[in-house]
Amino acid sequence: MLALITGATGFLGSHILRQWLAESHTARALYRSPAKLRLIADLPFEALPGDLDDVAALEAACAGCDVVFHVAAKADYWKDSDREALWRINVEGTRNLLAAAQQAGVPRVIFTSSASAIGIRPGRALADEDTAFNLRPQQFYYAYTKQQAEAVAAEFVAGGLDVVTVNPTVIIGPGDLNAISGSFVIETARWQWLLPSSGGGLAVIDVRDVARAHLAAVKKGAAGDRYILNAANLSYSDFFRLIARACDVRPPLLTMPDWLLEPTARSIEGLRRLGISTPLDADQARLGGKYVYFDGGKSERELCPPQIDIETSLRDTYSWYAQHGYIQRNWLTRLIGWL
After folding, report:
1. Within-domain flag for 271
2. CATH, residue 32
3. How far apart are CA 73 and CA 224, in angstroms?
4. For a designed S-S bond to 114, which of 22, 146, 212, 290 qualifies (C-beta 3.0 to 4.6 A apart)?
């Protein structure tokens, strides 16, 4: 089978490409910059220049494909100034890609959405595929664009295109060049017990399990359905304790009070607009006091269950970052560890 993978040069897309090729299939990958191919340079695939704005390139890339994995998205959602780009890439880019797939007669599209496109429930209740989106668009614009992209996908499903949507929770694991979710690990290794935790919780899954679910969706997914991909729901205190164990440092001692979360989020937005790295992004800070938990039972039953436990995933994540120079051991980290 021939697959087109958008976003194949990224964290999740590169794992999907590797697993797809390991099953003796063939692949095309759309890329914007040759420099971004380094993560997959060792793999045999057809590399096609183009992006989600390039309708002609998308139509050519879809021609003759048995399946399209639409993974590409703009995920640096902390940049308020990039809201136009978030909409253009995540919503209109999805529209362009699905139109190209429909024009080419592609039998099935696997669309990578996000668990953030699903609503959250009160307390520690688990959200499922039927939970309505209930985040404020102005505060969670990335999540809003993913929810709107799903609405676009629904339009194409109504028009006869076979689209299966998958909604991963927070993705961790080796190979996250941009250190989006991986910033949890990098900053815990740096700040150790000084890094504050918060009172809520999150849902998390290993990238290799997410890739496996994408491949399973090709044959097992129901057209027009969505599937939450989740391995574990963890309180932030438990999550950071596991990260600290993987990094061999002491876990955070401080818990941020809920009233401080919104001011912290606004401060983070300001710092990141100036190009200053922070341990958390603004959305994570805003949701820090809530238990953003999800029920992944449907995907476990109909696609495939996760195989990698979170502690193993975090160890692998730390090892990958250490091997690739992301973990800096200097006088400051040594001092914090000594205190």
Report:
1. no
2. 3.40.50.720
3. 20
4. 146
In a domain, 143, yes or no: yes
Residue among 164, 201, 215 nearest 24 (CA): 215
Please check whether residue 78 lies inside any domain of the structure. yes
Question: Which range marks the domain in which residue 118 is found?
Answer: 2-173+204-232+293-306
Which of the following is catalytic: 31, 77, 142, 236? 142
Residues contacting residue 277 through CB under 8 Å, at least 6 positions apart? 183
Assess contact for 6 and 70: CB atoms under 8 A.
yes
In degrees, to the nearest 5, what angle opens at C-alpha 178 toward C-alphas 239 and 11?
Answer: 80
Amino acid identity of residue 44, one-letter, is: P
The DSSP element (H or E) to which 100 belongs, if any, is helix 93-104
| 265 found inside a domain | no
How far apart, in Å, are the Cα atoms of 96 and each of 2, 134, 183, 217, 284?
20, 26, 31, 22, 30
144 phi and psi angles, rounded to 5 deg: -65, -40
Tens of pLDDT along 255-298? 666 666 667 677 777 776 777 666 566 766 777 678 999 999 99
* Active site annotation includes 142: yes
The answer to whether 101 and 62 are in contact (CB under 8 A) is: yes
Q: pTM for the whole thing?
A: 0.89
Instruction: Report residue 306 CA to chain centroid gap.
Output: 16
pLDDT tens column, 74-100: 986 555 558 899 999 999 999 999 999
Residue pair 4/64 in contact by the 8 Å Cβ criterion: no
CB 30 within 8 A of CB 61: yes
